[in-house]
From TrEMBL:
This is FAD-dependent 2-octaprenylphenol hydroxylase. Coiled coil: none annotated. Pathway: Cofactor biosynthesis; ubiquinone biosynthesis. The keyword Oxidoreductase applies.
Length: 390
């Protein structure tokens, strides 16, 4: 049986960010994932991408992950253009307004996971383990993990970074609240007639938002088109040409005609948050603790911030000789990150409520709101700063 200080279950963006952020700690870490974290990238970019903000880019640079990132799969975006299809509401953000050269990057999730996994491989206090977990046996001072490769691992602290349907969360009996957003997200990569010019675009339509995220190729965008389940099912049933015509119309032809570069996939969207994020010997981060609507592209960003705050908490507990497994020592992490997640969930609910449907009062409100924000420097800068995670 092998012993580590910390076992992170889940080698996605968030679990691996935590391992990277513990680089300079004395803690020994195992990252366990049922699939190998590093997966060779397909020749053509895939459609599962994330907009990663500047705060998290800085962290990736600080922990030497950035150098491993395949730069031809990550595109800096400089501007954001958001408009309401049903009103005069329109707003532009530019990185120049913040004295920065990009608002963030659009990166394929697997490219980021690969960079984090390579950095983890090179990190002396980290081991990456490919195995599923069969049983979790929680004791007073340590937890034992029975792996499906017949190995047993014991740890002082078990971290659930295993995504929305977290096995660790269920095993630990940490309760969650969830709500169906009544939206399904259609994702795909598309080719457009006009170049995107590194602008991330988002159109709010009465049946849900459409995001066009600029990829490295100047005429390729990744789309996240959130629609009511009925509308999404109709769009998924269309042939490629009819789907692209609907997409071109929904995007007000901002980038001209569109054609599919990848297959379409559809994901039902659910809001979840764990009512308790930690207990003795266990703590949750990332999607295991919260999932939010992708309309503001903040799920992974929020999770990466969980990882950074938890890493700081654990490093300082360990440096001062305190027990990293005690719930009372993990409470500050739980409190601060729960508050941030709740704020984000409330903001997503607010946006969804305001932009849903055809109510004339809401149309007027969002028209005035977006246009006024576009003109008010201070509020606008606050928005940009928030989007950059600063
Ligand atoms: C359509 C869509 C678009 C999005 N766009 C953005 C965006 O632009 N920006 C943004 O910040 N966020 C975005 N998000 C959210 C973002 O994708 C997630 O928040 C993020 O990927 C969560 O990362 P994670 O590491 O917590 O979980 P996951 O990525 O789910 O990783 C969990 C890992 O745990 C492993 N695992 C699971 N169960 C077990 C087990 N029992 N044993 C071992 N391993 C296990 C899995 O194999 C996986 O590797 C989007 C989400 C959706 C649905």
């Amino acid at each position: 049986m092998q012993h580590v200080d910390i076992a992170i279950v889940g080698g996605g963006i968030v679990g691996l960010t935590l391992a990277a952020a513990l680089k300079n700690s004395e803690l020994s870490i195992a990252v366990i994932d049922k699939a190998a974290c590093y997966q060779p990238l397909s020749e053509k970019p895939t459609a599962r991408v994330s907009a990663i903000n500047q705060a998290n880019i800085k962290a990736l640079q600080q922990f030497d992950v950035w150098n491993y990132l395949q730069q031809d799969r990550a595109n800096p975006y400089t501007d954001m253009h958001v408009w309401d299809k049903d009103s005069f509401g329109d707003i532009h953000f530019s990185c120049g307004e913040m004295g920065s050269d990009a608002l963030g990057i659009i990166v394929e999730n697997q490219a980021l996971v690969n960079a984090l996994a390579e950095a983890g491989e090179a990190q002396s206090n980290v081991q990456l383990v490919t195995a599923g977990i069969e049983r979790v046996l929680a004791g007073p001072n340590q937890t034992m993990l029975m792996l499906d490769n017949d190995e047993v691992l014991s740890c002082r602290l078990l971290i659930g970074a295993d995504g929305a349907n977290s096995f660790v969360r269920k095993q630990a009996g940490l309760p969650i609240t969830f709500k169906d957003y009544e939206h399904t997200a259609i994702v795909a990569n598309i080719k457009t007639d006009e170049p995107h010019n590194n602008v991330a675009r988002q159109a709010f339509t009465p049946t849900g938002p459409l995001a066009l995220l600029p990829m490295v190729a100047p005429n390729v965008c990744s789309i996240v088109w959130s629609q009511t389940p009925e509308q999404a099912a109709s769009l998924m049933a269309l042939d490629d040409e009819a789907f692209c015509n609907a997409l071109t119309a929904a995007s007000n032809s901002k980038l001209g005609m569109t054609a599919l570069e990848t297959k379409r996939s559809a994901f039902p969207l659910t809001m979840r948050y764990a009512r308790q994020w930690a207990k003795d010997g266990v703590v949750l981060i990332g999607d295991a603790a919260h999932t939010i609507h992708p309309l503001a592209g903040q799920g992974a960003n929020l999770g990466m911030q969980d990882a950074l705050v938890l890493a700081e908490t654990l490093s300082s507990l360990n440096a001062s000789g305190k027990d990293i497994g005690l719930y009372k020592n993990l409470r500050s992490y739980e409190r601060s990150r729960k508050t941030e997640a709740m704020k984000m969930i409330a903001a997503m609910d607010g946006f969804k409520f305001l932009f849903d449907g055809n109510d004339p009062f809401k149309k007027l409100l969002r028209g005035i709101g977006l246009s006024a924000t576009d003109r008010l420097g201070t509020i606008k800068n606050a928005f940009v700063s928030h989007a950059m995670g600063l």
